[in-house]
UniProtKB/TrEMBL annotation, chain A:
Residues 67-273 form the ABC transmembrane type-1 domain. Pfam families: BPD_transp_1. The keyword Transport applies. Belongs to the binding-protein-dependent transport system permease family. CysTW subfamily. GO terms for cellular component: plasma membrane. One of its GO terms (biological process) is transmembrane transport. It is a multi-pass membrane protein. This is ABC transporter permease. It comes from the Bacteria. Keywords: Cell membrane, Membrane, Transmembrane, Transmembrane helix, Transport. Its main location: membrane. It comes from Roseovarius gahaiensis. The chain crosses the membrane at residues 12-38, 58-90, 102-127, 147-172, 208-226, 254-276.
UniProtKB/TrEMBL annotation, chain B:
The keyword Repeat does not apply. This is Extracellular solute-binding protein. InterPro entries: SBP, TAT_signal. It comes from Roseovarius gahaiensis. Gene3D superfamilies: Periplasmic binding protein-like II. Pfam families: SBP_bac_8 (PF13416).
């Protein structure tokens, strides 16, 4: 009995989140799986059934291309975000406590903005009539104002705006705990600042960087509004097509099948990157 | 702000509404839940139509904002399975209405108790294949060729303007086959009518013709607010849009105009239907009957900006009032069955050829 009393948390506590997960994650997921094999009634809804027609429809060059686009856009956003967030976080960690708090609060406040607001703000900023095109024209950089949206650039800007705070928040704790003496020791042994950065700082932060990459990748894979607002049709991701099928075509089995597939692909990508990260970590 | 057929803003509110769908205690059937497209439509009905209805019949209206047709249809269907009706009477776009009919979602109504339904032309009186009557045309609206008057001082005369190389990167078009009716527009403009859409080869031929507009399209929009704002600022100075709201924006002083091209504008409509899960069938019939009266149809044209679903000579609309909401030019009529019977095929080809 005394052993029990020493535990800081009651033993039943973990069951609460576990039950929560079962009810609000596993059960809806099971429903989605069931719907994905249901029978689609053309011109109606769907009936219970067990068939793989919706999955078969997905295996085509057309949807293969869309899947590839989705993955590439998300990988691109993840790489850009981490490349921006890494030096940013290193700089942040060197600031005094007050400055750090201020920057973090501003960064967190970005998270309160919705995808809709960010999408429409960016499309205004990049527009021909009210955007930076006018500024460039006024400065004489371009002859006349032009629109920079919809384009891949606009879409990437939107996705990175949404995801950058997350990558900074993932990188910040390990970066702030980084022992500055390690870098100083390397410098004393004759390493240039860049050598110290490359051989000490980057290897020590490989895991958090991998974590940030995965987080941004998975996060941006589910974004469905920005590609519609900021992208051209060739940038419409699988998430956009899932929305179309579920909301506009009432084809829930096909939408569910695509969602299941998207989930499998993102799990596979996460698994693959974890595997790669571990090998490199072991070799270093 | 016009959000009639927009889904983004109202979809989340709707999802909550359905989950919560309270079995509102009705005072002896004197309250009726009526769903119309959220935003401008719902506000106009609440302001100009429902108070008079309540005064005339004693039935209180509980106004429900619904999202664009298909989403609301899915919600109604799911709710009906659980024996719930998030709305008793709903306004439904035609493709959604036909899908609901195929699924047997609409309650049968007693036409004998609804004498004003006789005012409506046959295509606005909806019945199951076995003849059971279930709904009526509520309001009609046109999708026309719209332009920004600053960028285009002269109004275009034909839908052929969409293909004009001079309009590169300056069009806003609806993103889906089943709500843009661009196949019908293309067929009428370039193939002498919509008959070519009767076969799959014909549909593909029309899609390939339509694909030629791609270099001119700046935005394929699902969200109406997105295009209307861009049209008003001149950012996207030409496109297809709703005649009624463009007229309202122009009346507000915005530099926009809506033109009935010589090939005609697309005539689309919404219909009143009743969920089979509703337990307010009688009040629903009174409501639909009331809405089919000539005076009310005229009032809808004046205050909501929709075209009447009854013949023009039954209304007391002046020429000017009629011109604001409609046209005597023969309209382009959507081939709704195409988006019901061949829905998945059309959607797939549309994604590959037109927007892909």
């Amino acid at each position: 009995m005394s052993g029990l009393r020493q535990k800081p948390t009651p033993g039943w506590l973990p069951f609460l989140p576990a039950a929560w997960l079962v009810v609000f994650f596993l059960v809806p997921f099971a429903i989605m799986l069931t719907v994905s094999v249901a029978h689609r009634v053309q011109g109606g809804f769907y009936e219970p059934g067990f068939e793989f027609d919706s999955y078969m429809r997905f295996f085509s060059v057309f949807f293969g291309r869309i899947l590839l686009t989705s993955v590439l856009i998300s990988v691109g956003a993840a790489v850009i975000c981490v490349l921006l967030a890494f030096p940013f976080t290193l700089g942040l960690a060197r600031m005094n406590k007050r400055g750090q708090t201020l920057v973090l609060v501003i960064l967190l406040s970005v998270l309160s903005l919705s995808e809709v607001i960010i999408g429409f703000s960016l499309s205004t900023l990049l527009s021909k009539t009210a955007g930076i095109g006018n500024l460039f024209a006024a400065l004489g950089v371009t002859e006349e104002s032009r629109a920079y949206t919809p384009s891949l650039f606009a879409l990437m800007a939107g996705m990175c705006y949404l995801a950058l705070p997350y990558s900074v928040l993932v990188l910040y704790p390990p970066v702030s705990r980084l022992d500055p003496e390690l870098g100083e020791a390397a410098r004393m042994m004759g390493a240039s600042p860049f050598q110290a950065f490359r051989t000490i700082t980057v290897p020590m932060l490989r895991k958090p960087m991998m974590g940030a990459l995965i987080l941004v990748f998975v996060f941006t894979l589910g974004i469905y509004l920005l590609p519609q607002v900021l992208g051209q049709p060739q940038h419409w991701t699988l998430s956009v097509h899932i929305t179309d099928q579920a909301i506009f075509q009432s084809n829930l089995p096909f939408a569910a099948a695509m969602a299941v597939f998207l989930l499998l692909v993102s799990l596979a990508m996460v698994g693959l990157s974890l595997l790669l990260g571990r090998d490199k970590g072991g070799g270093a | 702000m016009m959000k009639r057929r927009e889904f983004i803003a109202s979809a989340s509110a709707l999802a909550l509404g359905t989950l919560a769908a309270p079995t509102i205690a009705r005072a002896q059937g004197t309250s009726l839940k009526v769903g119309t497209y959220g935003g401008y439509f719902e506000e106009s009905f609440k302001k100009h139509i429902y108070p008079d209805f309540t005064a005339a019949t004693g039935i209180e209206v509980d106004s429900i904002a619904e999202p664009t047709g298909e989403a609301w249809l899915v919600q109604l269907q799911q709710a009906a399975r659980a024996g719930q009706a998030p709305a008793d009477v709903s306004m439904m776009a035609q493709v959604a209405r036909i899908r609901g009919e195929r699924a047997g979602l609409w309650a049968e109504l007693d036409r004998g108790a609804m004498t004003n339904v006789d005012n409506l032309p046959e295509h606005f009186v909806h019945a199951y294949e076995d003849g059971r009557f279930y709904g009526t045309g509520a309001v009609a609206w046109y999708i026309a060729l719209v332009t920004n008057t600053d960028v285009y001082p002269e109004a275009p005369e034909s839908w052929a303007a969409l293909w004009d190389p001079a309009n590169e990167n300056s069009l806003g078009l609806l993103a889906l086959a089943s709500n843009s009716f661009l196949l019908e527009i293309t067929a009428t403009t370039h193939f002498g009518g919509t008959d070519i859409l009767a076969t799959e080869e014909g549909v593909l031929e029309v899609m390939n013709k339509l694909a030629e507009v791609k270099p001119n399209v700046r935005l394929w929009y699902r969200d109406e607010g997105q295009f209307q704002q861009a049209l008003e600022t001149g950012e996207i100075p030409m496109g297809q849009y709703y005649h009624d709201v463009t007229g309202l924006a122009a009346a507000d002083g915005k530099p926009v105009r809506s033109t009935f091209p010589k090939e005609g504008a697309v005539l689309d409509s919404g219909s009143w239907v009743v969920s089979k899960a509703s337990d307010a069938l009688e009040a629903s019939q009174v409501f639909i009957d009331y809405m089919s009266q000539p005076e009310i149809q005229s009032k809808l044209s004046r205050f909501v900006g929709t075209a009447p679903t009854i013949p023009r000579d039954m209304t007391d609309l002046t020429d000017e009032e009629f011109a604001a909401v409609s046209s005597d030019l023969p309209p382009i009529l959507p081939r709704y069955e195409l988006y019901v019977d061949k829905a998945d095929w059309v959607n797939q080809k549309w994604s590959e050829i037109v927007t892909g």
